[in-house]
Specification:
The relative contact order is 0.14. The protein has about 375 residues and is of the alpha/beta class. It has helices at about 10-20, 60-65, 85-105, 145, 180-195, 225-230, 250-265, 285-295, 320, 330-345, 355-360, and strands at about 1-5, 25-30, 50-55, 70-75, 115-120, 130, 135, 165, 200-205, 210, 240, 245, 250, 270-275, 280, 300, 305, 315, 365-370. It has two domains: about 1-125 and about 165-305 and about 310-360, Rossmann fold; about 130-165, no CATH class. It starts with a strand and ends with a strand. The strands form six sheets. Strands 3-2-1-4-5-9-14 form a seven-stranded parallel β-sheet, sandwiched between helices. It has a three-stranded antiparallel β-sheet with strand order 7-6-8, with no helix packed on it. The chain has a three-stranded mixed β-sheet with strand order 15-12-18. It contains eleven helices and 19 strands. The radius of gyration is 20 Å and the shape is globular. Helices cover about 35% and strands about 20% of the residues.
Length: about 375
């Protein structure tokens, strides 16, 4: 089949491109090579077997050209990270997706399936259990609580400590940031308009994806990349809160496999799936594993700052996609080893986070705890 991958020069998109080419498909990439992610232009890891089209999903003419002759669309193009630029998320993610769907509708294109990249961020704090009141879907922690370094979630009824549970797709969505709002809007647009047009659609909620090709130039996204650039430059990694918050880290090649799986399986049509591992890893553990891999001793800055709206614990329940045959194949330590090997081949690595940290603090993205 002839397949379009928007954002196909990016981190996840390029791995989807490789998986599709290995599967025998004809692939076209539409990517605007946005900086700072693509600081050096077209990345050298792009396969020459894919057709590359430099263009922007926000421009209708670019979309028309990119969609010509296409049968399946993987919509990966998006602005991500934790920048303060609210309107950028709306324009790049929501409005661009709307334009993509309008072109497909207005040109009556014979698209057979659309797979859209969504995010774990749609869940907010996710799913917890109270020993007294059972299942709880708590609201985001307030600034006053975080300022006094009271990190864990408590039951709103009895104040007992809550135990995090794997978050499934039936968990109520509660996006707390502009990025998360935009990702939820993307998935709802694709699923609802797909239903209206009779085009099968699938939304994949990626948990924290990491691995080779994650941009080393973007200081706003990719915790493994941010930590790596700081460690390699002798800077103390900045760990928000106390470092014991947990995330579900999924290797990028596993994410690509999940995309191909739902493309081929009609049971996935018009559904939403988590893409993760079902395993929780503490952020402080990530720094520890990276420092060992780089053979560098580090002393992180911990407990000084937090990000308002950031969740405490979030791990995927992957039961639904597992029923389609998905199983993560790359354990975290193995994925980190492969990631570190890739970084070691990239030449001199610079730290970009330190330069923008003050800006993020001034814009309210990063906030300080009480002394």
């Amino acid at each position: 089949m002839k397949i379009l991958v928007t954002g196909g020069a990016g981190f996840i998109g390029s791995h989807i491109v490789d998986a599709l080419l290995n599967d025998g498909h004809e692939v076209r990439i539409l990517d605007n090579l946005e900086k700072p992610t693509h600081q050096q232009g077209i990345p050298d890891y792009l396969s020459p077997e894919a057709e590359f089209m430099e263009g922007d999903v926000r421009r209708v003419e670019d979309l028309r050209k990119a969609l010509d002759g296409i049968e399946i669309v993987f919509h990966e193009a998006a602005t991500g990270g934790f920048t303060p630029n609210i309107s950028t998320y709306i324009d790049s993610n929501i409005l661009a997706t709307a334009r993509l769907l309008e072109v497909i509708r207005d040109e009556r294109l014979p698209i057979k399936k659309i797979i859209v990249a969504s995010s774990v961020g749609v869940y907010g704090e996710g799913k917890y259990n109270c020993p007294k009141h059972g299942i709880i879907f708590p609201h985001v922690r307030m600034e006053e609580q975080l300022k006094r370094r009271d990190w864990e979630l408590r039951c709103p009824s009895c104040s007992l400590a809550l135990k995090p549970l794997p978050t499934d797709e039936m968990t109520p969505v509660r996006p707390e940031k502009a990025y998360s709002v935009s990702k939820f809007s993307q998935e709802r647009l694709v699923l609802s308009i797909g239903m209206e047009l009779g085009i099968p659609a699938v939304a994949l909620r990626y948990f924290l994806t990491y691995g080779p090709r994650q941009s080393l130039f973007n200081p706003y996204t990719g915790v493994c990349s941010i930590f790596s650039t700081m460690i390699l430059n002798g800077m103390p990694p900045v760990i928000f809160e106390d470092g014991w918050q947990t995330r579900d880290f999924v290797f990028v090649e596993d994410v690509a496999r999940a995309n191909l799986l739902v493309m081929k399986d009609p049971r996935a049509n018009f559904r939403v799936f988590n893409v993760g591992t079902g395993r929780a890893t503490a952020i402080s553990k990530v720094v520890e594993i990276l420092s060992k891999a780089y053979k560098r001793k580090v002393q992180p800055r911990i407990g000084e700052q937090f990000r308002l709206g950031e969740v405490r614990h979030l791990v995927a329940d992957i039961t639904q996609i597992a029923q389609l045959g998905f199983a993560p194949q790359v354990p975290f330590e193995e994925g980190i080893r492969r990631y570190v090997d890739w970084i070691s081949s990239q030449g001199n690595i610079h730290d970009y986070f330190t330069a923008v940290e003050e800006h993020l603090r001034g814009s309210g993205v990063i906030r300080s705890c009480q002394q």
